[in-house]
Amino acid sequence: MKKKIDPVVDEAIETLNMKDGPSRRRLLEGAGLFSASAAASALIAACSSSSSSSAQPKTSASATAAAVGNFPSTPPWQFWFVNHVTTNLFFVPTQNGMKDAAKLLGLPAPRWGGSANSLASEMVSYLNTAIAAKANGIATTVISATSFTTPVKNAMNAGIPVISYNADGVVSHGVADIGTNRLCYVGQALYLSGQQMGQQILTLLPTPGEVAIFIATPGTGNIQPRFDGAASVLTPKGYTVKEIATGALTSAEGPAEKAYLTGAKSSLKGAFAVDAGSTEQLGPSLASVGLAGKIPAGGFDLTPGTLTAIGAGQLNFTINQDPYLQGFLPVLYLYLFNLTGGQVSPPDTDTGLGFVTKSNVALYQKSSSYLGSAGSPSLISRSGAIQNPPATTST
Asked: What are the backbone angles phi and psi of residue 391, rounded to the nearest 5°?
């Protein structure tokens, strides 16, 4: 017997304006499709009981794909994810998200590869391997405005849908240079997020002074737009903004920060970072030179070390971009594109810009596969009012 559809999921379906809404409501025995990030968690929760039921037989990927709700039988489509820092802790939730979505749809787990050190040549090589293997869909970070133009075009010409996630070319001084003909982008509005960080720095440090912004790999499309966005806010106000490279490997970022902080501590008024690794290392680095809690500090992403540093008062804030959705949504979008023969084309999706501070960090310190701190998905209970600021043109 089909389960009664959850009202939250029903509302999510309506936001898609699907012509075949009633039949789609039977997807996954009572779950529904959703629009962007707002209904992703509702979909997972609504599906959890049916996917874990002992009454469901264990089947192969192809058989499971044929049994997904009201949808027709499909091949076991194999999707590929191309990444620029494959072993970075930041992307653990992304990998969990892509696997969860694939399992939800009865598909094999997507393949994951690329570069561990933000080398575009290695990423392109892996992308070309996916094309040669006749992948059914590719999701790739695009950290360069030029390196991915040809391989993405080749994939699309071969009939392989391509989605970018996390990084979408380069934004220079607010002007986007995407560089590919991908179908859509799933990720944070990076330049805008940098501007929002700049505004936060103005609040924490109202008097102009010297500010260091640490960045793993200057020039790459996943983080350079953030630095540029922050600088666009701070420089006109009279702040001296120092761009300090730390390297792609987390093990090198801490030493690079400590070396700079040691030499600049007498003049430095604030220290910030625009990538996950540099942010995670920033709290301990500040503590090692006696600056933790003495100057404003903050950065990006929700790695365990960053959350600990916020709780300890070493960092004032970090900015969340929801990496889980950057894995989950591309799989759903590629599935729909293949299922509908291209009739349902995926939209650009902003996965968010949320500030995490000492006042709300406890929520994100709960063990969870959605944040990369636990192995399996689980239902996370909550209660009370949902604190969220009014929407503006920039949030």
From this structure: -70, 145
- Identify whether residues 315 and 194 lie together within a single domain: yes
* Tally of domains within the chain: 3
Can you tell me the distance from the alpha carbon of 137 to that of 78, in angstroms, rounded to the nearest whole number?
Answer: 7
Q: Is residue 102 part of a domain?
A: yes
- What 3-state DSSP class applies to 362? helix
Contact 322, 372 (CB under 8 A): no
CATH label of the domain that carries residue 158: 3.40.50.2300
165 has which bridge partners? 186
Q: Round to whole Å and give the CA distance between 348 and 355.
A: 22
**79-83, strands of its sheet edge to edge:** 111-114, 79-83, 137-142, 162-168, 185-187, 349-350
Q: Is residue 156 part of a domain?
A: yes
Q: Are residues 226 and 259 in the same domain?
A: yes
Residues 241 and 354 in one domain: no
User: What is the residue range of 335's domain?
Assistant: 74-188+322-364
Domain assignment present for 266: yes
- Residue 280 near residue 315, CB atoms below 8 Å: no
d(CA 95, CA 335): 17
- Edge-to-edge strand order for the sheet containing 268-273? 240-245, 210-215, 268-273, 297-300, 317-320, 354-356
Tell me how far apart the alpha carbons of residues 316 and 356 are, in angstroms, rounded to a whole number.
Answer: 9
Structure tokens at 257: 């920060």
CA 225 to chain centroid: 15
Structure tokens at 93: 């939730």
Handedness of CA 233, 236, 241, 246 (dihedral sign): positive
- Tokens describing residue 4: 């009664």
Q: Tens of pLDDT along 85-143?
A: 999 889 999 999 999 999 999 999 999 999 999 999 999 999 999 999 999 999 999 99
Residue 223 lies in a domain: yes
Structure confidence by residue, pLDDT tens digits, 193-243: 999 999 999 999 999 999 999 999 999 999 999 999 999 999 999 999 999
